[in-house]
Amino acid sequence: MKNEYIPHLAEIVSVRKETHDTKTYRLVFRDSGLAGSFDYKQGQFVQVSVLGVGEAPISITSSPSRKGFLELTLRAAGRVTSAICRLHTGDSVYIRGPYGNFFPFKELKGRDILFIAGGIGLAPVRSLINLVFDNRDAFGHITILYGAKTPQEICFKNELIKWEGIRDTSVFTTVDKPDGTWKGHTGVVTSLYDKANINSKNSTAVLCGPPVMIKFAAKELLQRGFCRPDIIVTLERYMKCGIGKCGHCNIGGLYVCTDGPVFTWDQVVRFPENEHVF
Amino acid sequence: MARTLTTCIYCGCGCGLYLESDGSRIISTVPSRNHPVSRGSLCVKGWNSFEFINSRERLTEPLIRRNGKLVSATWEQAVGLIAEKFLSYKNRYGSDSLAFLTSAKATNEENYLMMKLARAVFGTNNIDHCARLCHASTVAGLAATMGSGAMTNSVDDFDKADCFLVTGSDTTGQHPLIGSRIIKSVLDRKAKLLLFDPRKIRLSKYAHLHAQIRGGTDAAWINGLMHVIIRDGLAADKYISERTEGYEDLAKVVKRYPPEYVEEVTGVPESILVEAAHIYAETEKAMIVFAMGITQHTTGVNNVKSLANLAMLTAHAGFPAAGVNPLRGQNNVQGACDVGGLPSVYSGYQKAGDPAVRSKFKKAWGVDFLPDKTGLTVTEIFAHACMGNIKGIYIVGENPALSDPDLNHLKKCLKNTDFLVVQDLFLTETAQYADVVLPASSFAEKDGTFTSTERRVQRIRKAMEPAASSVPDWKIVCSIAKAAGYNGMEYNDPSEIMDEIASVTPIYGGITYSRLDPFGLQWPCPDKEHPGTPYLHKGKFTRGKGLFLPVEYIPSVEQPDDDYPFLMTTGRTYWHFHTGTMTRRTSVLDREIPENFVELNPEDAKTLDVKTGSMVCVTSRRGSIEVKAKVTDRVSAGSVFIPFHFKESAANLLTIREVDPEAKIPEFKVCAVKIEKV
Amino acid sequence: MLYFLPEDLLNKLLINLQQKWQVFVPLLQTGGDILLEELPEKGKYREDCLNRLSPGSKAVNAQTIIPPKEVFFPQSEVMFKYSSDSQNPDQLKIDSLKDQAQKTNKPGPRLLFGIKPCDFHALKITDNFFKNGFEDFYYLNKSGNSMAIVFGCPTPPEPLSCFCSSTETGPMLNKNSGHKFDVQFIAEEDGYIVETGSEKGEKFISDNSAFFKEPSDMEPLEKRAELIKSNALKNIKLSVPFNSAVESMRNKDSGSAAGGAGSSEVENTKDLYKSIAGRCIYCGACLYVCPTCTCFNVYDNSSLRCGTSAITGGERVRVWDGCVFSGYTREASGHNPRAKADMRAARRYEHKLKYDVPVYGRSSCVGCGRCLTACPVDTGMSVFIRGITENNEK
């Protein structure tokens, strides 16, 4: 019987600083067999261990279309993520997974996609964004709305610029609190809706961010004609096992780790605690 | 999967539980259904009490400080060094250059041996323990008025009383299984709960009335209650004349505390005070329940005397479900006092100053000399160490570097101590100052007895072999005595120590291990046939007549002023215990409250422009900590509350060293602080 | 089939079973409580245990304080160990799993001897839970090839908080009621009627044929068994409207967005959750003692280099956890989707009576009553069921 709880050694091959407390790590499994066989889908997550400290679920931010490595973006928030953020190139962590369901891909072909992300919430969505761009011809117009608290807290700065240059793609960035140098938009992410001229027709919205952002972003999408199944969110929840056993992420009859983390808004409104999830 | 019945290590409730060992670890805790206190339940700390035992941070070997660093040593080296150093101080500076801090977490047998070590082997009465910081005022106050410093009722009485006057006790947090009985009595039996507490606590929600008193004004509102009781003719005249003395003095004093004046001082509205007085006096089965909110004041003894006065005035002492009930905080703080871990008394509260007592112990212990002068208390020991009078301190299972007031001063004292020995499960904040650190075994790894808050002497039983090279405290103490040349401390088993305790301690006279199965006996238990005592002062008080000792209201030493405008009070939370050495090494408990906080009234938070989660700097005249704000109406405007569990931002850096003149208990509950947004 | 085991052969049977099985039995403890323990392989201690055997002593018909889930899912267990890499002391690595397994794995499949019918039903649910989806190595490693010998309850155990006739999980297992089991013992004056319910059960009998008498005439044995079973049902003291509670939970959505919000029924239910939360002291007992609660926390227990915070090795441990604790759902950001006490109170009841029903085809409450027995403020499933069904009648 496989022991799903045993993680595997992975080496940090590069670290990119996103903001003062957020970094993106590129990892490669030490075991060459595992490095070859590790396969994941857009929107899945892994359980990352720092032995002696603990384990935490982290979304995979790299696209499955780009093979040979795994990228994780994390912010030093809890004990484990803080410990990881102290690691450097050449250090190791332990990884198991991938776990969870994933963003639809085939189902989105031929449609417009509206990505809405806040802060580090861009990380899980980025996996799908890059997968879509690696198959650019299969999709309609791509809109990316991204909000951060301050200009300093914008993640994936270079990629946002790069995405903007891709054909039939619009990227809008906003910050809550601008500083003197900020020339872009100011306000919450929903304040970009008009500017981006969003349209619900043949369109799917993909959301990730802080609970309060998701709540308002989705609410306004519904007002603008999006129907619940066309709003897709990916959730974060405290969890210990990632495989539907520890119980922590259980909402109603669903486990965020195995039934999610990707849910349609139609599912979300049926959550027993939906008023508190966001 | 062997199971062992034992007693919980946390609070004084004394719940019975089973530990399960797999040979190398304790893997579970299960409450006993038949145990009279736990009755199939435990609080969350009890349910998780096995986890710290398995902690990999347990000390594994003795450590000796060499060149400033603690390095591993053998038991022979460590014990030899302690005996050598202590003997040399004794010879050079006299016995009173040594001090011993025994432990309310250790067993009765171990505490008894510690006092024997201090008195018989090293010839000093400088022995004390953390009861000094919790119920020293109770022991003094109740002994003076009633003759016995313990809880007069039993835990079972909480199911029978019709009125609870709870003050200075966050009962559901600190004594959860007693708190739960109060909840059930109020909700299911319609018992009345009268709560006198500066903070809104969990019990507030069940209280018939909650008088949110100003911190440190206890004598005033208690006198106020008595004023109303006498004024309205509710005093128990027959009981007073038959069973008490000193009533006239009391009546004279409380006359000066009319409700209008009390309201002014304490903030308790007149109507509340009058209603509380009537309910308490007119209910036959009424229990007073109190804890640190009463005792941890420079007026602690007065506060306790005052509560005793109140109970005697209304004939609420000496009966089942009516009495004065100090809830003891540590699993064995009652026992550590009972068996003489105090500077003024031997086991059974026999006075060290009494020649007859000393001659009895000289004979029992086979020594020619026993000291007569009252020894130093915890607070005095450290002060004297700072001045250089105390050279060697032996601390067992206490963590003063986090639990004592004014930590900056305390740490200076620890640094100044020539030779400090610390014996514990972990390298505590205190152990980090030690010259010798000794690894002790946990409660799961030894036999012995604890005495719970209801005076129940009950067994703890060994569930597994001592971890690593740790040794049970009683064996360590014996080996130090032997190394110091004393041969009167050799035992094969803790039961032999209990037999010795019984032979010299009247209140424990009838206690032997064979009688303690399964769930113990309540002292006084003077002889082998005595069934134990569920409630004290039946028929007459232990001291004969109950003595009214009237007290006046004296304000706390440090009052808020322009520079330090907030009144700070300290305490605990439900999830953690004391300095967190055990609970912060328990995953579920530490997850629940992983970091410190300061409770701040919304009004004050607004003025300071802080929200829940904002970092604030709290400063007193003695120190400063940074801590997260928790905005809540649990505290009233102008007051703040900080728990003392957290080493990262120790509340006791701020507290004041001033003590009650009689009991020498520090005023943990009141000091003045200022708060700044970080 | 029915067989008969004379009382005086019970201990001998248990000793014989130890050849093949690791045998777990309910034992009378120092404090008069009953707990499951592994029967020692030999020696004086085994004698002592056999003397404390609960099913053997007719006077004792008490429930184990902790349900049998603990045999496969102990309150705490080490998942794996790690230590400093010998080549690179700053790097921790997981110790060889083979070595760890050898040290911890005891031989022989586990036999749970003398468990109650309600607990037997609960084991089916936990077996199912740990097998479904990703397999739980630690549980299945211990439960693999295990078997349960059920002891029917002639009278409900003290204290009277169980309600198995309402949950249809006892007091005796009945093939007619669709109960699937291997072996059930039914106590009589001088021995046990032994009922098999499966091929596995028959094999158990044939493997130990020296102990079991096959009756020459089956009919009287059948009649006796039927009589005991019907008496057992009559002896039930506590019954609650369980099915109507499950029905009403199923039809109710406490969420505000979908159906039923604001109705008086939903408001009453919310009030009930509030009143339960108002008593709760967050001890976690109802979850720890529940035979179908399986939540756990995971933490690393590390050793430190003396006087430093450098980790030199340790173990990853899992330990029982529960949805009543606020830290159970609190995220690293501080956001807590179940921050309110009444939401946490609701969780347990909704999980057992509502969300598990479609998963297991029945509620995951088996009516053992332990939650009430262990609750310091006298709340439990039967109290809730009465509350919610009375609400509905209002």
In short:
Chain A is an alpha/beta fold and 278 residues long. Chain A has helices spanning 32-37, 79-85, 122-133, 157-164, 193-196, 211-223, 265-268, 274-277, and strands at 8-17, 22-29, 45-50, 54-59, 70-75, 92-99, 112-118, 142-148, 169-175, 185-186, 203-208, 231-234, 250-251, 254-255, 262-264. Helix content of chain A is 21%, strand content 30%.
Description of the molecule:
Chain A is an alpha/beta fold. Chain A contains eight helices and 15 strands. Chain A has helices spanning 32-37, 79-85, 122-133, 157-164, 193-196, 211-223, 265-268, 274-277, and strands spanning 8-17, 22-29, 45-50, 54-59, 70-75, 92-99, 112-118, 142-148, 169-175, 185-186, 203-208, 231-234, 250-251, 254-255, 262-264. A seven-stranded mixed β-sheet of chain A has the order 10-9-8-7-11-12-15, sandwiched between helices. Chain A has a six-stranded antiparallel β-sheet with strand order 4-3-6-1-2-5. The mean pLDDT of chain A is 93. Chain B has four domains: 2-54, Single Sheet (N-terminal domain of TfIIb), CATH 2.20.25.90; 63-132 and 331-520, Rossmann fold; 152-327, Dimethylsulfoxide Reductase, domain 2; 566-677, Barwin-like endoglucanases, CATH 2.40.40. Chain B is built from 23 helices and 28 strands. In chain B, strands 5-4-18-17-16-6-7 form a seven-stranded mixed β-sheet, sandwiched between helices. A six-stranded mixed barrel of chain B has the order 23-27-24-26-25-28. Chain C has a seven-stranded mixed β-sheet with strand order 1-9-8-7-6-2-3, with helices on both faces. Chain C has a four-stranded antiparallel β-sheet with strand order 5-4-11-10, with no helix packed on it. Chain C is globular, with a radius of gyration of 23 Å. The termini of chain C are far apart. The chains are: A alpha/beta (278), B alpha/beta (678), C alpha/beta (394). Chains A and C meet through strand 4, strand 13 and helix 8 of A and strand 4, strand 5, helix 6, strand 10 and strand 11 of C.
